Amino acid sequence: MEASSSCQEGTAEIVFFDLETTVPNRAGQRFWVLEFGAIVVCPQKLVELESYSTLIRPHDLSVVALRSGRCDGITREAVANAPTFEDVADNIFNMLNGRIWAGHNIKRFDCVRIKEAFAGIGRPSPMPVGMIDSLCVLTEKFGRRAGNMKMASLAAYFGLGQQKHRSLDDVRMNLEVLKHCATVLFLESSLPSVLNGKWQASPPSVMTRSRSNGKLQCREEISSRKSPASTSIGYQRAVPYARGSLGKVTEGMKNLLCKAQETQSLNKLLKHSHSLLR
């Protein structure tokens, strides 16, 4: 375990954790924990205070694939000499127990696997004092502007690199994603009439400047996270409507107002005729 600076005494610390497990390929098979990684975070400063990670060898090595389908995945050879879950249970318990648990999709997956693993060695599971599932929180607060809300998609949205699917790397990425999302939501709440919805434009338009032939020029780059492309054009101010559509909107509003006035005049005429017939 690695320790860092401390936060305010008496405040519950947050522990971001993640598990890497086997993937059952038929009904009835259980998940086996192959790696545990966690960082303890001060809730006031959002700084990492402590970290711990370990590979874990299941009792039956045959459940681990010889070759992983992921580039940084965990293979049978990698865990062959790793400690068993029982060997590291005390460290994992001390990292989790009595802290606020945080992670991506931990309610439905990681928490269940932790409980199963401790039950498998006949020991009580650690207990949280609170829980922050970033998948639930961000789906509700941030929306699906980043796509399917998987950690890899969120990281790509903010340009944080590729998810490595290794526990300690993933929890640190999880914290960075939350910081970025919180910043966007804070800015939107500060200027709701200006910023709300503007972050969701796809593809994003980025105004950059470059020098050519000694003159300062502007260009608009329309890029994606994976394959950026750019087109050099004259300076152009971004507007909420496509070219030409603003005039159509204005014309449409004018027609609606005319129809409303015609309807109002017709109603007055009908009322007047009705009073003459009495």
From TrEMBL:
The organism's place on the tree of life at top rank: Eukaryota
**GO molecular function of the protein, one example?**
metal ion binding
Which keywords does UniProt give here?
Exonuclease, Hydrolase, Magnesium, Metal-binding, Nuclease
Query: Cofactor(s) for this protein?
Result: Mg(2+)
Establish whether keyword Nuclease is in the entry: yes
List residues of the Exonuclease domain. Answer: 13-187
The record's section on InterPro entries has: Ribonucl_H, RNaseH-like_sf, RNaseH_sf
Kindly indicate where the leader peptide sits in this chain: none
Per its record, how is this protein called by name? Protein NEN4 isoform X2
Q: Which organism is it from?
A: Tripterygium wilfordii (Thunder God vine)
The taxonomic lineage of its organism, from the top, reads: Eukaryota, Viridiplantae, Streptophyta, Embryophyta, Tracheophyta
